[in-house]
Write a structure and sequence with these properties.
Radius of gyration: 23 Å
Structural class: mainly beta
Helix content: 10-25%
Number of helices: 5
CATH class of the largest domain: Mainly Beta
């Protein structure tokens, strides 16, 4: 493969914008290996980190921590930008434009030479393996960063994927189609549908905010600013030309529907909400870098001016405190009720979770229903909801943080981290309802990204896809048909019979056989290995470095036979 084509392939895979990953810091007092110290330094050499990491992995082959999880995202995000000395060098606007011009030339030249066309093979939808005559769809398909449902037409929903795409459904998640494939966008971190016109949509992707006025057919950049990665966008339901955007580079406001913007705050802002019964009232949570905590602000004039509200709000002056971000939730069932979820550390030895505060008077005063702030954590009475286990372990910070409250029951709250948690008593207590802790009804993929509750509709997105429920999540179903955004790390095909297999980022191994429905793949299990091999002979035999061998069934609802393969291939992580 020519070097220019390899570079082109990498840039196409990751996009020519700043990568979406948050610097998830290890807990205070945690002893880091040398490679992690290098990674967390101000200007790390990527190759030096890789070399030290490989050596460390030889004696720690299975250890999973906050910093090993961050390494995966950091390494993937930096890949396209490594210069000849091994340091990260972000592209200039001029180089981005030059690349796009060159890409267009290559597309035109290739089309003129071959006239070749490509067909998407999926996965269009992923199903559980060995679950009987009617396989159940499973959220083990694509990482969905954000989602928003139209309030004026609830059948219309948009979502943004890690693969840098925006998908739309017009039948409430039964079928999705991509509306951004003609645009070189980054992975959207926030998406917002206009409250009365579902054709008007805002999407925050890397350093840009884009707007569509025709239901996603075309997208225009309306705001671009360095380091602006967008966490939330809100269109005011009373004055629909007022738009707020909470970003890592501050709070932005528009009074003309997004044509022009003013930056109101310079500090990172994490989330925005409007008061359900008074659109003039707005809330925002904002980083205070001097105090290393998150603070709550309230506006009475559609977000034009803001006042700090800290009566009963979280504060810490203890050593080791840090602000990891926050999310807000409001409810039509009680318009004065606000919940605020804070992550980070309140003090040394905490690990990712500070607490969920509650206000019953529109933010004027606050209480902590489940004290204390941060640790010590208790699995039964005060769990650490941010970490893999209820009392500790690794976490992924703001990368995994979904939060909302029911519009029908003000005491019903859902919080998504690595695991999914539910409260039915106004955030006084929570129980784990999915992720690493399992689920009694159906699979819930770990690593929750977004939670949105509108009336009876509950949407939860994760590293695996979209879940939908209309009964307070007593039952829930994977609704991912058409979200063709699986991220393959390994891939192989068979030629005696048409078989496709591969290992995917976040979503394990998948397989498809020619007798099955087009694009309907089985989820075969496994982790995140660059794996997947097809035996060239008969019998539909396939092999994987993390789960062994699988004989694919002749029919999709048949029995997949798992077997040992003895020697395993060498695969570089």
């Amino acid at each position: 493969m020519k070097s220019w084509f390899l570079a082109l392939a990498l840039l196409l895979s990751f996009g020519l914008s700043a990568p979406r990953y948050y610097k998830v810091q290890p807990s205070a007092g945690e002893t880091l290996p040398d490679w992690a110290k290098l990674m967390y330094s101000d200007h790390p050499n990527v190759w030096a980190v890789d070399d030290a990491y490989r050596q460390w992995r030889q004696t720690n082959p299975d250890l999973k921590t906050t910093y090993t999880q961050y390494y995966k995202k950091w390494r993937r995000g930096t890949e396209p930008y490594i210069n000849t000395q091994g340091f990260v060098e972000q592209p200039t606007p001029e180089s981005i434009q030059a690349f796009n011009d060159r890409l267009q030339q290559l597309k035109t030249a290739q089309g003129n030479r071959s006239g070749a066309s490509w067909t998407n093979l999926g996965p269009f939808e992923t199903f559980n393996t060995n679950t009987g005559p009617t396989p159940l769809a499973k959220s083990e398909q694509a990482n969905i960063y954000c989602l928003d449902q139209s309030l004026s037409d609830p059948n219309i929903v948009y979502c943004g994927t890690e693969g840098g795409e925006i998908f739309k459904t017009v039948d409430k998640g039964q079928n999705w189609f991509c509306v951004s494939r003609n645009y070189d966008i980054g992975a959207p971190g926030a998406i917002e549908v206009h409250p009365t016109n579902p054709d008007v949509v805002f999407a925050g992707e890397n350093t840009n905010i884009r707007r569509s006025t025709d239901g996603g057919s075309t997208w225009t950049i309306v705001l671009s600013d360095a380091n602006m990665y967008t966490n939330d966008i809100q269109v005011n339901p009373g004055q629909e030309n007022v738009v707020l955007a909470a970003t890592q580079n501050g709070l932005y406001r528009s009074e003309d529907g997004g044509d022009s913007w003013t930056r109101l705050f310079n500090e990172a802002c994490y989330d925005i909400e409007w008061k359900p019964n008074d659109p003039a009232v707005a809330y925002v949570v904002r980083n205070d870098p001097a105090a290393a905590i998150c603070r709550f602000y309230k506006s009475l004039d559609y977000g034009l001016t803001w006042e700090l509200k800290d009566n009963g709000w979280y504060f810490s002056d203890l050593e080791g405190r840090s602000d990891g971000g926050a999310r807000l939730a409001v409810t039509k069932a009680d318009p004065n009720r606000i919940y605020a979820l804070l992550i980070g550390e309140a003090k040394t030895d905490d690990s990712g979770f500070i607490g969920i505060w509650r206000s019953d008077d529109a933010g004027e005063t606050w209480t902590l229903p489940n004290p204390p702030a941060g640790g010590p954590y208790d699995a039964n009475t005060h769990p650490n909801m941010a970490t893999i286990g209820p009392t500790g372990g690794y976490h992924q910070g703001f990368y995994n943080l979904g939060f909302d409250a029911s519009d029908k029951d003000a005491d019903f709250v859902m919080a998504g981290f690595l695991n999914l948690w539910i409260s039915t008593d106004g955030a006084t207590s929570f129980y784990c309802n999915g992720g690493y802790c399992g689920n009694s009804f159906n699979y819930v993929h770990p690593d929750c990204q977004e939670i949105e509750i509108n009336g009876d509709d509950i949407w939860m997105t994760s590293d695996g896809g979209v879940e939908y429920s209309n009964d307070f999540f007593q039952t829930h179903y994977a609704v991912n048909r058409g979200i063709t955004s699986s991220d393959f790390w390994g891939f192989s095909t068979g030629w005696n019979e048409d078989i496709l297999v591969g290992g995917r980022y976040h979503n394990g191994n998948t397989g498809w056989y020619e007798n099955w429905m087009d694009g309907e793949h089985l989820g075969l299990g496994g982790g995140e290995a660059p794996t997947g091999y097809v035996n060239p002979g008969e019998g539909r035999l396939t092999y994987y470095s993390d789960i062994g061998g699988v004989q694919l069934p002749e029919s999709q609802n048949g029995y997949a036979r798992y077997f040992s393969i003895g020697k395993y291939p060498n695969e570089s992580y």
